[in-house]
Write a structure and sequence with these properties.
By secondary structure, the chain is of the alpha+beta class. The chain has eight helices and 30 strands. Helix content is 13%, strand content 22%. A four-stranded antiparallel beta sheet has the order 3-2-1-23, with no helix packed on it. The longest helix is centred in the last third of the chain and has 20 residues, at 628-647.
């Protein structure tokens, strides 16, 4: 019967009234508000003026919520990017801030805005104050200067409410130039004394600070090194890798929390003391696929993706029955799912989170959702509930690349949220009631039509989550700790997809994935698949009869695990990466086990855990990176070409390109445009990957090939096939690689000690 806006407003207001009345101590004003609501409810023929009366009542009810009593003073940003400003019409805007990675660049931020405090916003005369007005930096390169040029990003308030952290860059114009003035640096403002200090400096971007319960700060930085894999040379932008780092509150003792090779954003601390954040996870799979919720310990240990990282389709073989669940085009789903989840923050006294369903190609605004990890994950919408269902999911529900309304939400409670809506700040609730908090016309410098008001947060003390003890050997306080790291697997058979019959897991293979050391996509093509990365086989360890393994692992390297059989062929392989920190003791239950299983439920101690950790054993001679021309081409030309040409069967030339249809490889790139059948999907299927799924691998198991090709050489070809059938071992010196010379990658490896911890 809701055929008018009036009826909608009355219903939503009544729902909030009922919620507030159910509280143990409801506001005294609710009685009168209830009477006013009842009169509006009985109005069967509302006039235009009655709509305004209903909206006025709605605002009165929303602002009477006692949960808002502690939020009379807020901090927020005024900022804009060249893609995010709706008045800006620039060509090629996707490369000027219109991407969830490039939106972070300082030179894509429009000069202006600032860090502001909002007071008395529930009164009729709210006020806005520039928190940096009259402040000069007390130290560092900007000592004695005011931060009155450039732009601002990612504010965070300390748990005691006395310190404000934020990022600033001094860029004054839109130039695609990396320089000191276009890089984000972290600052902190003592809100009591007004002392402004610079925390970071140097040739790196540092932003997204968050105070940890231990007193340290986590933040996002490009100090890890490397570049994103998907930006083409024509884009002209070099896009560095941004990942989690940690430092003391004074800016000292900086070290990485993450060694991932793409990017991470917007860490926050949940109610259990864990870090939650967004990671762009797409190793050997589509580059728009995994940009969802991740969590790790505050020292960086054990990063996991408990939600949404493996949507359907899991594979793109001919027997696939699932379409892309993100776009809601499948028979078993009726709605789309988010492309990206950003600005994740825990709700007070809850296990749930608020987040922004955002685009991949755009800023981190979109539609708001609540995430509940206690519900089973179907890789789709089972753990999500929409807060703003009238705002469609960017890209997956609203094709094209435009602007989106909601973001940077702060949960007042599980029912009420502060956030931005387009250019202004609002308070909204889960019933759909929404009221203005601050409009950009209130900014002290006057109206600026380019700016968005974002990141509303309480400027007050708040409860501190528990401090989880550090269990890694990182930082100056742990300089004397044991730097050895170990990995234990309880049972590889604990999996949500059973291993195929007739193939017995024998060993666990560990490969190292290498970050991109140059900024352009597929320059060069590392393998058959788009956006592939070099691999270094670090070795294997035994799998005990109960499926367990326990071994020493190098820290600071991206690791890919594969379960291999008696023929050294991978049964299962990762399409993500893991890593350990110095001194870390990482334990995995199984291979893609269901998320609600635990080690405690499995009984006695695994067999491998009853002995000292094993050392990785190289498979095929000394450890060196995979390179077709050095390791595989000599075997094929020396053992195979003559027979194949004589019999006229199979590949004849045995060069790299002629083998494309005879190998197996996973594909990066864009689904529907560059990913080919049989090479896509979100995860590997046991028994349908690597050598065992390739024509060459199957041929090597025949008696004729076992006789013609010695076991050691078969093993080397199998290893190459399992490692995504790569062409090159590094992003540089391709001519030398094609001559069969050993060329090592430039990042995360010491050629003289491949199993040593990375620096």
């Amino acid at each position: 019967d809701e055929k008018t806006p009036y009826a909608v407003v009355v219903r939503r207001t009544g729902a909030l009234l009922a919620l507030l009345e159910s509280r143990p101590a409801p506001p005294a004003s609710l009685g009168a508000l209830r009477q006013d609501w009842a009169r509006l409810k009985q109005n069967v023929s509302p006039q235009p003026f009655d709509v305004f009366a209903a909206c006025a009542l709605r605002r009165a009810v929303v602002l009477s919520n006692p949960d808002l009593d502690a939020y009379d003073r807020l901090v927020f940003l005024g900022r804009a990017t060249y893609a995010g400003c709706r008045l800006t019409n620039m060509q090629n805007s996707d490369r000027t801030g219109g991407h969830f990675n490039t939106q972070c660049f300082g030179f894509n931020t429009i000069r202006g805005g600032g860090v502001f405090a909002l007071e008395n916003w529930r009164a009729k005369s709210p006020s806005v104050k520039n928190l940096l007005e009259g402040r000069t930096v007390a130290n560092g390169p900007h000592r004695g200067s005011a931060l009155d040029v450039g732009s601002f990003y990612s504010p965070e308030v300390s748990y005691d409410g006395k310190t404000l952290y934020f990022a600033h860059c001094g860029s004054t114009e839109h130039r695609w130039v990396w320089s000191d003035e276009t890089l984000w640096k972290l600052f902190k403002l003592d809100l009591e004394s007004g002392r402004l200090t610079q925390l970071t400096e140097g040739p790196w971007n540092d932003f997204d600070p968050v105070e940890l319960p231990s007193g340290r700060l986590a933040f996002i930085s490009e100090r890890r090194g490397g570049f994103i894999r998907c930006f083409a040379e024509g884009a002209r932008l070099r896009v560095p890798t941004f990942v989690l780092h940690s430092m003391k509150a004074d800016g000292s003792d900086i070290y990485p929390l993450s060694y991932y090779e793409t990017s991470e954003w917007q860490p926050s601390v949940d109610n259990s003391g864990m870090l939650v954040y967004t990671r762009w996870d797409y190793t050997d799979r589509e580059n728009c696929l995994g940009s969802m919720f991740w969590t790790c310990y505050p020292d960086g240990r054990d990063p996991r993706a408990p939600h949404g990282n493996y949507p359907q389709p899991w594979h793109t073989f001919a027997d696939n029955t699932h379409g892309d669940h993100r776009f809601g085009r499948c028979a078993d789903v009726s709605s789309a799912a988010p492309m990206t989840e950003m600005h994740i923050r825990a709700m007070p006294d809850s296990h749930r989170y608020i987040l922004t369903a955002a685009p991949h190609h755009g800023e981190s605004f979109g539609s708001l959702c609540v995430l509940d990890l206690r519900l089973p994950d179907d890789g789709h919408m089972s753990q999500l509930r929409r807060v703003t269902p009238y705002a469609p999911f960017p890209e997956s529900e609203s094709p094209g690349r435009s602007q989106y309304p909601y973001g940077t939400a702060w949960p007042v409670s599980g029912d009420v949220f502060l956030c931005n809506r387009w250019e202004d700040l609002v308070v909204l609730d889960r019933f759909g009631n929404e009221e203005l908090v601050c409009e950009r016309e209130l900014l002290p410098m006057g109206y600026d039509p380019r700016l968005r008001l974002t990141h509303p947060k309480p400027l007050r003390a708040r409860p501190k989550p528990p401090a989880i003890p550090q269990q890694t050997a990182q930082g100056v306080d742990n300089a004397k700790a044991d730097k050895r790291a170990t990995i234990g697997v309880v049972n590889v058979h604990v999996t949500d997809q059973p291993f195929p019959q007739g193939r017995t897991p024998k060993r666990l293979r560990v490969l190292q994935a290498i970050p991109k050391s140059d900024p352009w996509m597929d320059k060069p093509f590392i393998g058959y698949g788009n956006e592939s990365t070099p691999r270094i086989p670090l070795g294997t360890v035994a799998l005990e009869s109960d499926g367990s393994a326990y071994f020493e692992a190098p820290a600071g390297k991206q690791l890919i695990f594969q379960v291999v059989d008696e023929n050294n062929m991978a049964i299962q392989t990762m399409r993500s990466t893991a890593f350990v920190h110095p001194g870390e003791r990482l334990t995995c239950l199984g291979c893609h086990e269901t998320k609600n299983e635990s080690y405690a439920a499995k009984g006695e101690q695994p067999m491998a855990f009853r002995r000292a950790p094993e050392k990785l054993q190289p498979e095929c001679g000394p450890i060196e990176p995979i390179n077709f021309y050095r390791q595989i081409e000599p075997i094929l030309k020396g053992r195979c070409v003559v027979c194949h040409q004589k019999e006229g069967k199979g590949p004849q030339k045995m060069d790299y390109e002629s083998l494309r249809d005879y190998v197996f490889y996973f594909e990066g790139g864009m689904l529907g445009t560059t990913i080919k059948k049989d090479h896509g999907g979100s995860r590997s299927i046991p028994g349908r990957c690597g050598a065992a799924a390739s024509r060459i691998g199957k041929a090597l198991l025949t008696p004729a090939h076992q006789k013609a090709v010695p076991e050691e050489e078969r093993h080397r070809v199998v290893l190459w096939l399992d490692a995504n059938a790569l062409r090159y071992s590094a992003y540089h010196d391709t001519a030398a690689q094609e001559r069969g010379e050993l060329v090592w990658p430039l990042i995360d490896i010491d050629p003289s000690a491949p199993l040593a911890n990375a620096d």
